[in-house]
Amino acid sequence: MLRPIAEVAGELGIATDHVEPFGRDKAKIRLEAIAAAASSRPQGKLILVSAITPTPAGEGKTTTSIGLAQGLVRIGKSAALALRQPSMGPVFGRKGGATGGGKSKVEPSNTINLQFTGDFHAITAAHNLLAASIDNALHFRATELDPRKVVWKRALDMNDRSLRRVVIGLGGPSQGVPRETGFDITAASEVMAILCLADSPSDLRARLERILIGYTRDGQPVCAGSTGVIGSMAAILSEALLPNLVQTTESTPAFIHGGPFANIAHGCNSVLATRMALAHADYAVTEAGFAFDLGGEKFFDLKCRSGGLNPAAIVLVATVRALKMHGGLALDALEEPNPAAVERGLENLAAHLDAAARFEKPVVVAINRFANDSPQEMDVVARYCASRGVACAPADVFGAGGAGAVELAEKVVAAAAGPYTPLKPLYPLDWAPEQKIERIARAIYGASGIAIAAAAASQLARIKKLGYDQLPICMAKTQDSLSDNPRLRGRPTGFTLTVRDIEIAAGAGFIVALTGEIVRMPGLPERPAALRIDVDSAGGIVGLK
Fold it and tell me: Does domain 5-118+240-416 sit in CATH 3.40.50.300?
């Protein structure tokens, strides 16, 4: 039985007038709560949860994060979660829900997986208001924008491959200016990235104004501030900017806010939700999307650098089944015991441990236990971690909740108790964009070098001319491999990372380097999860996993 959300907020020390309830089990928390807590208690320690390169099913990073927070409470610590909200596209597509599992979930899980408090709808509306204002200005010839050089698309929080490339304005002059455009899923919208990196309403507005929407006929940049609708966009997003408070299956507080993809954007929940958790708990457990090469690196180089955050420790989630995949087993053979394949697959864990070490934070490996994992396979991972002097603990959080993460919680507390070390980004901002990209490719992915395609080279020249070259890099790369080739498992070596194009996310405050085929609007699989979701006779949602 879930506790009333007012009780959860009260135990965190959040004043009643800072809580905006959404029913009995969820609430928006006003930003004033951060400053109020800062005057009465020290800031907590930030714990980043990341992972090794996952199987297509994922390795339970969110479930482990939730279990860890519950485990911290079990050993007498004050803990809160700061997690991303799931996108509805994958919920109805291949992935299904993303609120944890078993005895380590955030609740109300069905609501969180679907429309929650409306934040994604607000982001979609603000994104599309800007798109509509652009085409309205083109229709009335009230802008210097070249219709062929508009880069701002539309957004929808649903998987729909048919919308990736569309032509709009057909049907005659009264219907607008015909041009080619497309849709991105809302999680890939720059408005999503902006909301998650903004640290105040004024910062949100300033970032919205800086969005690059296109170019004039002579190649001059045009930003969203010129459209006159930034005030309306900010109004749409005013409530969405406030972090959402819910709870886990064991009543541990959880701030669920924002949801950018990690293979396209920076893959982290909002700066404000993270600050809210840090302000009200001794330990704030957060996660970054996919594996450390994507979410982890961006967490440090984008979110922490922009938001003034600094983790005390890193938890790296590994699973026996993922290690067997990296050890050469086919996906349909991962349930069979095979310690030798686990041994071979340790190269992927090693790569992520080496990458994490670049940021000079203590690391704890969490072995997320699955029912078919044998003791011999678990022991292979534990012995390897011991050989490297890395703390390691099993995590049976799906089956046992917080009780299954007590050892992990104790080791995380011990790791976080070490001496403070300042944030150490991977590269300085005054490096050239190519130098920043190569640093990420070599130090995090293990590439031997980079290749810049002609389209990317042209964009880099434009970036330098326009003065955007001081921005950090957001790598858009497959989550299925350390390399830019999704078929390469384990720890690929000797490969060249190819940057095929570059995009400017001036509002979010980073440059996007595109590698491989990164799809910003996913499609539904042949048998999507939407086919199993329904509402029962009592009005409850069923089939959402």
Answer: yes
